[in-house]
Amino acid sequence: MGTVERRAVQARVLAGSGHLARRISDALQREIPAYASLGESQRQETEAISRWGVQRLLELWVEDGRLGEADLRQFHGIGVARGTDGRPLSAVLRAYRVAAVEASGLVRDSGVAELDVEDVLAMNVVLLESLDALSEALSAGYAAATERLATDRDEVVRTLTQDLLAGRQTSAAALEDRTRLLGLTLPSRLTITVVGSPGSDVTAGDVAQLLTTAAPDGLVLSTTRQGVGVVLHERPLDLGVDVRSRGRRTCRFDDVALTDLPATFRLAEVAVRHAPAGVGPRASSSTGALLEADALLVALLHGQPAVDPAVFAEAALRPLLEPDAAHLLAGLQAFLDHGTAAAAAQGLGLHPQSMRYRLRRVREVTGRDLGSSWDRLLLTTAVAVLSLPR
Does 15 score more than 50 pLDDT? Predict the structure, then answer.
């Protein structure tokens, strides 16, 4: 059988690649205890690797080729990933042997009428040589990962934090494996606090010193990125006093999903870099941190990152958008339109004392002080956005 016939068998196998991947995945879970407890996302990841591996082996069989440097780098990277997530090396290597048997069987079934002895021998040579080469690459990557983990856990944790901020967590399953090996329990939502200033960079030592004085409780991940300090935490964390004493400011976003961390970090980084002078220490929170609405307004004023004005308005006025707070929003709108509480009360047909009560409640529920130029700008802009046609 020649190249043309092998290509025909290859095409038939790849046409059913979804079936092949599931067949391999089922065999792995059936034959290897470490793969029997894989979750759905881990199973999907395994199937994706299986499809790529079988496709590559078929190419080598058709072309009488061998794994190249690019292939070996790929398998080295897979070994690093498995070493990082803690899956046993023996199970990983056996998984590739099981997958090779299943792939060989499917090739045989798809080309039973066309294959001759030479084709079968060629497939066996490709499988044996490939398994030998990829096993070395996998083992080397696995060893590098486990050695790094054993010698510098702090650096591995920082790398994990950087990956979260950059959106490089490849899958929920891989992330779960990484954190389990590190002895961490990563919640699905976190608070992100970014520390920085317009004129100087924040160092890892600066962040470590701040965390020492803040006495954090629960999970805390920290690093530096793009010249600012970043802390991911699951419990309240007050960095305000120490940060302000060093001429820096903080921006904090609460209840952030892991997948939203990259975009949220970008907003917070721009906020601490580009918020108007003096805004940080007088910001609305008790710790002086810029909050979500502050960061969104800075982004709108700075021109990046792109922000939907409606999202900003919702963040700034969230408590006033509840149905039972409609009278407070109306009072705020009247005050901003008329400029004084007395004029606003007259415009709404209220007693001045009732208007002053509404404005006091606006300050309490939003945390914004109309006597602060920044807070007033923020509320004025948000109310103006609400009036825009949708």
Answer: yes
Residues contacting 362, CB < 8 A, separation 6+: 320, 328, 331, 332, 368, 370
Looking at CATH, the fold of the domain delimited by 3-151 is given as Globin-like (1.10.490)
Q: What is the pLDDT of residue 177?
A: 72
Q: Range(s) for CATH 1.10.10.2840 in the chain?
A: 308-390
What are the strands, taking DSSP E only, across the chain?
Answer: 189-196, 220-225, 228-233, 249-257
**330 compared with 85, residue with greater pLDDT:** 330
| Continuous H helices in 220-325 | 240-245, 261-274, 292-302, 309-317
| pLDDT reported for residue 170 | 56
Q: Please tell me what DSSP assigns to residue 220.
A: E
- Whose tokens are 């992330």? That residue is 175
Task: Label residues 221-233 b or e (16+ Cβ within 10 Å = b).
Answer: bbbbbeebbbbbb
**Second-level CATH architecture of 308-390:** Orthogonal Bundle (1.10)
Mean pLDDT confidence for 151-164 = 84
Residue with the bigger pLDDT between 256 and 57: it is 256
What does the pLDDT read at residue 23?
82
Task: For tokens 């220490």, name the residue.
Answer: 281
Backbone angles phi, psi at 232, to 5 degrees: -105, 125
Residues of the chain within CATH 1.10.490.10 domain(s) are: 3-151
**Whether the Cβ atoms of residue 160 and residue 221 lie closer than 8 Å to each other:** yes
Which tens digits make up the pLDDT trace of 25-57?
Answer: 888 888 887 777 666 767 777 778 877 888 888
Q: Which is nearest to 98 in space by CA: 45, 34, 142, 145?
A: 34
What percent helix, strand, coil does the chain show, rounded to 5? 70, 10, 25
Q: Would you call 109 helix, strand, or coil by DSSP? A: helix
Pull the structure tokens for residue 72.
Answer: 């070996």
